[in-house]
Amino acid sequence: MAAESLPDPSTDLDDDILLDQEPPALTEKQDFTGDLRGALPKLGLRNYWYPVILERRVGKTRPVRVSMIGEDLCLFRKENGEVVALGDVCPHRGARLSEGDCHWAGTVACPYHGWVFNAEGKNLAVLGEGPDSNVAGKAGTSARVYPVQTLKGVVFAWIGDEAPAPIEEDVPEEFFDPDTVIYANDLIHWKTNWEVAIENSMDAHVNYLHRDHLQTMLASPTFMPRGAAGARVAFTGNGFTSAVPPKPQPEQDEHTDAGIQWPKRTIRKRWAWIFRPFFASTHVPAPMPQSDWWGTGHRLPGMFRAGIAQTRDPEGRPIRPRTGGLFGFYTRWPVAVGDWFTRVWYFQNTKPKSTFERAKNWLLYWMLYRWLVQYNFSQQDMSVMENIDFEAPERLSGTDSEIVFWRRLVVTKHRGGRNAEYTHHGKTVDIKRPESQRA
Ligand code: FES
Ligand SMILES: [Fe+2]
Questions:
Q1: 241: phi then psi, degrees, rounded to nearest 5
Q2: What is the mean pLDDT of residues 89-97?
Q3: What is residue 248's predicted lDDT score, i.e. its pLDDT?
Q4: Secondary structure of residue 75 in the 3-state scheme
Q5: Does the residue 162 lie in any domain?
Q6: Do residue 79 and residue 226 come from a single domain?
Q7: Residue 25 forms part of a structural domain
Q8: Which residues form the domain of 102?
Q9: Is 284 among the domain residues?
Q10: Ligand 1: which residue has its CA nearest to atom 4?
Q11: Which residue, of 84, 143, 357, 430, is most buried by count of CB atoms within 10 Å of its CB?
């Protein structure tokens, strides 16, 4: 699809304004302003690479079905063990290949009349009709094939109608780094839309919604530091970074006009000193991103990335996150399964320098941080996202500015294709597309 040049009227967003949103004005003029929610793709952007499943879930004898981005995939293994994906619809009469069997390595047989397909989607034989079948191997009897690549135990597929783009543009750089260890989780599903899920990390909810996250309760003397307020959004070519400028924060906020203090009590000070050293000592620093394309922030086709890289400042003094510690570099990638059902992938990557460190990280991930980050913390997000009314009128705050930019970016790509030009009137980093690793 040809890239369209779309108007992008700049909105200079200050912390203290309310953003008025007009109803969508999207039809003739392609005026990408106002409330764009109605123009977002409900099942995600097409023509991108997406994570499908952990490779270890695909066995040798039975295929596996995965639904995502409005498509159904049937995954099985080639003779050499690589995972491959066909469309999960038999070209004969639409039965689900994933309900069939892999009688022979590198094939899947449809459960209905036994059409047998290989990894290239070719119909090799029709078991129900026998060797005399006059459709076996005939043109037009092939199943759809999805381009697939397995990286660090995660199967990625190209979901779209165009020829696949270089996978390095859509899959984070650490998947191509031999020294990085990635912990991936494909089990978490939220009953919400993918866009609601991705917008969750673009605003100022963290220190309020997550105030009773276990680690905050135990190890943060007050609540977590405020985020997003006043953050300036910079365009990276495939998304946005939004560095949170550090702001001194009192133990309690005085809302003088309202006559209230928040937090109401500072009781956590009494025990935070006991638990903070534990979390600080278990902090696993995040490997530094190697490019702006894959730095922190939000990236297409829809992921959030964050990490606390350093444990020491330039003078060598230890830097302790206010709650004590975190685990590696964090990526949360919501992938649409249905209109209001989303698989929320979590990747946490580390770069251990020794076998001992590798073993220690493994233990910390499985004993503590997987639960703490992906369940205890994130399910606080989930509980709100699942019941959100995404059609109700919004009155956005200045701290929601990234949401406005993000929606405009998604609608631009949805309408104009992945190479559609997006012009950002704010800050832009030096945009460099990742180079393909393939020879
Ligand atoms: S529907 Fe698949 S073999 Fe008939
Ligand atoms: Fe959150």
A1: -100, 150
A2: 97
A3: 67
A4: strand
A5: no
A6: no
A7: no
A8: 60-146
A9: yes
A10: 113
A11: 84
Q: Count structural domains, the chain.
A: 2
Q: For the ranges 14-18, 141-145, 349-353, which has the lowest average pLDDT?
A: 14-18
Ligand 1 atom, smallest distance to 90 CA: 2
d(CA 316, CA 420): 45
Same domain, 100 and 236: no
Q: CB within 5 A of ion ligand 2: which residues?
A: 381
Q: Are residues 218 and 117 in the same domain?
A: no
pLDDT at 4: 34
At residue 215, what is the residue type?
Q
pLDDT score of 174: 97
Question: Is 261 found in the same domain as 177?
Answer: yes
Is the pLDDT score of 47 beyond 60?
yes
Q: What is the mean pLDDT of residues 147-156?
A: 98
| Ligand nearest to the backbone CA of 207 | 2
Domain boundary among 96, 111, 146: 146
- Which pLDDT value is given to residue 439? 44
Average pLDDT of the residues of the chain: 87
**Residue 120 in tokens:** 């290239």
Q: Is the CB of 115 under 6 A from ligand 1?
A: yes
**Are 140 and 178 part of one and the same domain?**
no
- What spatial distance separates the first Cα and last Cα of the chain, rounded to whole Å? 27
Q: Which of 409, 328, 287, 346 lies closest to 51, judged by CA?
A: 346
For residues 178 and 80, membership in a common domain is answered with no
CATH code for the domain of 310: 3.90.380
Please state the atom number of ligand 1 nearest to the C-alpha of residue 100.
2
**How many whole angstroms separate alpha carbon 228 and alpha carbon 203?**
6
Question: Which of 24-28, 200-204, 272-276, 356-360 has the weakest average pLDDT?
Answer: 24-28
Atom 3 of ligand 1, nearest CA residue? 113
Report helix, strand or coil for 103.
Answer: coil
90 Cβ closer than 6 Å to some ligand 1 atom: yes
Q: Residue 316: left if φ>0, alpha if ψ -120 to 50, beta else—which one?
A: left
Does ligand 1 come within 6 angstroms of the Cβ of 112? yes
Q: Are residues 179 and 283 in the same domain?
A: yes
Q: pTM for the whole thing? A: 0.89
Ranking 15-24, 103-112, 157-166, 280-289 by mean pLDDT, the lowest is 15-24
Q: Which two tokens stand for residue 70?
A: 């409005």
Percent of the chain clearing pLDDT 90 (strictly above): 67
